[in-house]
Amino acid sequence: MAEHMKNTDDYSLVRVPNDARLPMWEILLVRIGAFTCISQFMLGASLGFGMTFWQAFWATMLGSVILQVVSLLIGIAGAREGLSTSMLTRWTGFGKYGSGIVSAVFAISMVGWFGVQNSVFAKGVDSALGGALGFPLAAGLTGLFVTAIVVFGFKWLSWTAKIAVPGFLIVMAYGIYKVLENHSLSSLISSPTPGPALTLGAATTMVAGGFIVGCVTTPDMTRYARSGKDVFWITLIGTFLGELGVNLIAVLMAHAVKDSDIMSIVLQLTGVLGAAIVAFATVKINDLNLYSSSLGVTNVINTFFNKKINRGVVTLIIGVIGTFLSIIGILDKFVAFLVFLGIWVPPIAGIMVVDYFILKRSRQVLDESRNKGTLPETYENINPVSLIAWALGFLSGYLIKGGIPSLTSILVSAIVYYIGMKIIDTISNQKKLENNKTRRMIGG
Fold first, then answer.
1. Is residue 419 a part of any domain in this protein?
2. What's this model's pTM, rounded to 2 decimal places?
3. Which of 9, 196, 234, 388 sits at a 20 to 30 Å CA gap from 47?
């Protein structure tokens, strides 16, 4: 048993070796699976209920471009270094203890959403079975089912995607077929907004904000990629096919039935079986929630307690806790807190991108250790500049009204971090010059 659990660690605190890297399509399928779920369909239905087709198209396109840029940049860093987001932050601006703080935010946020979405999944399954199980039993079974998948790591996530993604896409195709039986495509595209109007800014924010946490944790997936080119196609196809495709299908369905209630739409168009398949597709986003949370918790324990604990064991513990909390309904009362935590995540991407691609402060030690297949032996304990930039990025996204909050927070954190590190470097260089001058004078 101990040997079996050893294989579930999934390189949580080390680089993914080259011989463990996966074909591009396997990672892409997992990425698409993150979008082919109820929550994404709910987003598209909300856009369709509050916007015309073309308004929803442009809102989705703008939001998707933001998601694509963020995902691509930190995804390439994850693939190059073979490290998860939680580990990568140690050498991209935050240092060891800053990385632990970032990982704690990821862990709490992701396991919270795991519990909330498990409730959605369980209710869908129970409804499809006519209430035969009851919510507590359904939530227990669905939560433990997802936990069991995630315990065995990324390869099991890939196998789940091979089942859930095609099933979801078949249901969507059938739903569109049923829509077009009674409506022409041109009439749906040109139809007026069914519900209260939604502004372009608000809709773009919904699109970008809805998956921004998934963007920042992109290295959790792309650390298995074989090249930066693979990351480009994984993020491009995943974002635009998943985000744009699912959203626009949901928009057309919402226009057809004049409703934004997701299960009502699916039941009307595809029946109970279709609703059950769509509910099952929730597994694909929820296993990623739990997976990223397990990587975050593993890093937190290693950072603050200097202990290495198997990621599979961590998954089992937090999966059971998240499942229990979803059964008793306590997590539903913390959705506002989870949304608040989500606002803290986007600025992390701005800091990581600036440090890794522009300042390149740790690139030399990363390159040297990567050639040996190890981790750098040196790192900062903590970088106050990154914490200040992180806080200011959060405050800007939270307080500045108008625009796209997630983009605002990323840009502000990136600019503040860049300027802050340049000031620190200038002061440090000035001190070195003064010290050298003093030594020469003494030597003279």
1. no
2. 0.90
3. 234
